[in-house]
Inverse folding.
């Protein structure tokens, strides 16, 4: 009995078929006068260029197998993720960029390091083949939690300003006044990962599991890895969201229990 091939290599011609589907989207945009055709084509070109660059860099890093190369890639990834997360927040305050970077860096690095040293255990522990993809998954998902948490916190503080001022005027501590907005922000940040965990394997097959199956990994082994990844992502998202919301709370409420409302800017 002949064993099935573990990996089917895509030719550039086959890849071109998938790329041509973007032209279908552009055609629909033109037909419906959506005005998105140029944006779709630019996004498609950026996708190809960015992924090719990443592929070349990762090939170099994988071949080098040095901790400092992995650390350099990790730093770039954290800064890019922080920029994307904070860039979508409408209400901002002084120090928001630093808070976002700290929260995402601490959460992603802590959980990735735990996974590498205690769960996966590659040799060496910073093996790029494992470290870079794991860190990328932690950052990609905690990014959403950080962004949504900060956005909801800003809206809650702006919308409930009279109530917060009233509580503080009546002698409430800064935590008592801000507890409800903080909890609402954290809950909002955790909604995407919670929803994903509720339907994983039923509505969709996650990217990592799909990739392993396409590469010929046994389904049970792919499931084990995906379960691990989902739990790691959930923890990193929670850690990052809680950290950034609490950092924001500390910046927007003074030690003498005053709401520094003037620091919060932006919004509609």
């Amino acid at each position: 009995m002949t064993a099935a091939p573990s990996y089917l290599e895509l030719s550039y011609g086959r890849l071109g078929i998938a790329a041509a589907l973007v032209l279908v989207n552009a055609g629909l945009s033109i037909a419906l006068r959506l005005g998105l055709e140029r944006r779709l084509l630019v996004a498609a070109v950026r996708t190809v260029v960015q992924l090719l660059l990443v592929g070349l860099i990762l090939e170099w890093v994988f071949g080098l197998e040095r901790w400092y190369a992995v650390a350099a890639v990790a730093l770039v990834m954290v800064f890019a993720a922080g920029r994307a997360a904070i860039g979508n927040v409408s209400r901002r305050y002084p120090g928001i960029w630093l808070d976002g970077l700290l929260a995402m860096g601490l959460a992603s690095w802590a959980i990735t390091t735990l996974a590498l040293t205690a769960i996966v255990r590659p040799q060496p522990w910073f093996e790029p083949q494992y470290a870079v993809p794991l860190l990328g998954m932690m950052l990609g998902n905690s990014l959403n939690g950080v962004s949504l948490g900060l956005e909801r916190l800003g809206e809650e503080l702006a919308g409930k300003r009279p109530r917060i001022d009233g509580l503080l005027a009546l002698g409430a501590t800064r935590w008592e006044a801000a507890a409800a907005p903080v909890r609402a922000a954290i809950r909002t940040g955790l909604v995407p990962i919670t929803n994903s965990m509720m339907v994983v394997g039923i509505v969709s097959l996650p990217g990592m599991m799909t990739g392993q199956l396409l590469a010929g990994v046994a389904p049970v082994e792919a499931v084990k890895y995906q379960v691990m990844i989902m739990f790691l992502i959930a923890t990193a998202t929670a850690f990052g969201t809680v950290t950034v919301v609490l950092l924001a709370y500390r910046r927007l409420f003074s030690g003498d229990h005053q709401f520094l409302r003037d620091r919060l800017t932006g919004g509609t």
Q: What stands out?
A: The longest helix spans residues 219-252. The chain has a mean pLDDT of 89. The longest strand covers residues 91-92.
